[in-house]
């Protein structure tokens, strides 16, 4: 478990191998990043400890409502303050970012906002889609998605950064599949746009 690449087990059907999307899971410590990762990987809740480095897993799935297949290579990076300067090394070349927030911990949303905007505005992350997972929506006192959207100032990420806010409960997996589908759709749209730009440049 963690730091190793392994084949998926029960959550999604076995699929033929192909290039995995490079997805980095970020967020403050105790937001539930590793719980998200292992719910996706094993389709069950696993007790976790604060990540001191990173965990990595590959997950393959068939997107609901279509026959499209997607393979995700997740990198779950520790969220303690001393580890956040390392995020940049993991996000370089990423196809998408997953930013997990604790919906109950309203006092730290300002800190989460600062870290999210910092990483999204890095030159190498320009245009990279962001899935914000509003975790722990099952708990009493959790903030509504609209409140989290405002607190994180998602509208200020800029027109070049596509994003989606997904309410979720990582312990039971609710909302995670829907969130990944939206992330995949944003990544696909961005790739098409980049290909069109490349073709236009060649014609000049």
UniProtKB/TrEMBL annotation:
Transmembrane segments: none annotated. Mg(2+) binds at residues 34, 51. GTP binds at residues 27-34, 79, 135-138. GO terms for molecular function: GTP binding; GTPase activity; metal ion binding. InterPro entries: P-loop_NTPase, Small_GTP-bd, Small_GTPase_ARF, Small_GTPase_ARF/SAR. Keywords: GTP-binding, Lipoprotein, Magnesium, Metal-binding, Myristate, Nucleotide-binding. Coiled coil: none annotated. May play a role in apoptosis. May act as a tumor suppressor. This is ADP-ribosylation factor-like protein 11.
